[in-house]
Every structure is written in C-alpha cells, then in structure tokens.
Write a structure and sequence with these properties.
DNA binding; Arc Repressor Mutant, subunit A; Alpha-Beta Plaits; TACO1_YebC_N; alpha+beta; cytoplasm; 4-stranded antiparallel beta sheet; 22% strand; DNA-binding
C-alpha cells in the first residue's frame, strides 16, 4: 500500500511546484462543480469536495471566489468530463481525466502525448479495470492506532490505515468520502495533506531506466495539457 501513497505524494509535490498551472486547473474544476449545482458547498457536495482538495494544494481564495462568481454570473461556457485510458512504456497503464469544451482538441492532444512518448491510447475499460476508485486522506498529528480507534468509534469501515513518514494515510470507499471527512473534523482534525478521490492501481510495475525516463516525460506532457485534470498510473517511481 505504501508505494501507492508515495505516487500520490510525489504527484502532489510536483503539482505544488507549478502553482499557476494548478490554480488554472482548480479554477476550471470549481467553476464546473458550482455551475452544475448550487454555488454553495454546503448544499453542493461535488463543489465541497473540490474545495477541500483545493485547500490541500493551497489554492488562493481569489482563485476560488473568481470561479464561483463566474458560475453565479451565468457564464455559458460549458465543459464536459472525459476519461481516456492507455498504455505507456514497459506495459505501464495510465488513466487521464479531462474537462473540456472541445473534445476534438482534447482527444487529439492526449493521443499525441501517448503516441510521441512510447505509448498508445486504448479503448474505454482497457485499463480502468486494474484500478480502484478510492477516497484517500493523509493527515499529521495523530498516530495510526489513534486514527483507527477514532474511525471504529464512529462505526466507519475503511480499506486501510497505515503510517508513513509521520503521516497517517486512510483509504476508504469513494462513497464514504464525506462520512470519513466529517469523522475527522468531529475529532478535531481539519487539516489534511491529501483529501481526494483517486484511482489506485491494484498492482504496480517497475520500469527500466530508459522506459521510466520516457514514461515520466509522457506524464509531464499529459499534466501540462490545459484540459487534463488528473493523471493516474500504475508505475512504481521509487523514492524519487
């Protein structure tokens, strides 16, 4: 389980170093969530979840407010959700989630990112069956046993709880995201390093040095695409 957490942690660290790109992606995601429901997180669970994620990435308040105000203002800009699946170097598997107002542009850019970096796009379902949608939380300040006892007292079943490098990581069913989050908050835990839904691989693969270099380039290209919100994969990137 630890390696999967390392990949989430490494991905988050990389995003933290590219603030403007992260803010732009969150701005779009917040706008879409606010526009599809009420622009109030207390009555819009999807918006509430996005805002919680944005908080862990230190997205500035003015970015959040601007996106919500845009939704309130009746903007007619429409975005649709798309998921692309494919294969990278060395038999690696990749899932790409996108928000786009131009599907032809998005699919062309994603296909090129795969094709030019030793990969190829697959059909829907060709990769996702090897991943599990999972609610992931990471927090500091309390130990593994304390967190586990807290969840048991709240009568919440989770997939896994483990401690690594001073953080306690909790994997739960995706539909229990808000239940777990509220249990944390009820017990005084309001700050999270990670609080999001992720796609965790059932198994991970290690790549040769050459394949890994090409794979990382492919992931960087995908992450840089304006329409791409999330990229998930099954590669063990080690302790980089």
């Amino acid at each position: 389980m630890g390696r999967k957490w390392n990949n989430i942690k490494d991905k988050k660290a990389a995003k933290d170093q590219s603030t403007s790109r992260v803010n732009a992606k969150f701005g779009r995601e917040i706008y879409v969530a606010a526009r599809r429901g009420e622009p109030d997180p207390e009555s819009n669970q999807a918006l509430k979840m996005v805002l919680e994620r944005a908080k862990t990435y230190n997205v500035p308040k003015h970015i959040v407010d601007r996106a919500i105000d845009k939704a309130k203002g009746g903007s007619d800009e429409n975005f649709d959700e798309f998921r692309y699946e494919g294969f990278g170097p060395g038999g690696s598997m990749v899932i790409v989630d996108a928000l786009s107002n131009n599907v032809n542009r998005t699919v062309s850019e994603v296909r090129a990112a795969f094709g030019k970096n030793g990969g190829n796009m697959g059909v829907a379902g060709s990769v996702s069956y090897m991943f599990d949608s999972t609610a992931v939380f990471a927090t500091e300040g309390k130990g593994e046993e304390e967190i586990l006892e807290m969840l048991m007292e709240e009568d919440i079943e989770v997939r896994d709880v483990f401690e690594e490098e001073g953080s306690v990581i909790v994997y739960a069913e995706p539909e229990d995201f808000h239940t777990v989050q509220e249990a944390f908050k009820k017990n005084g835990i309001t700050e999270f390093q990670v609080a999001e839904l992720s796609m965790l691989p059932q198994t991970e693969v290690s790549l040769s040095e050459e394949d890994q270099a090409q794979f990382e380039k492919m992931i960087d290209v995908l992450d840089d695409l304006e329409d791409v919100q999330q990229v998930y994969h099954n590669v063990d990137l080690g302790d980089e």
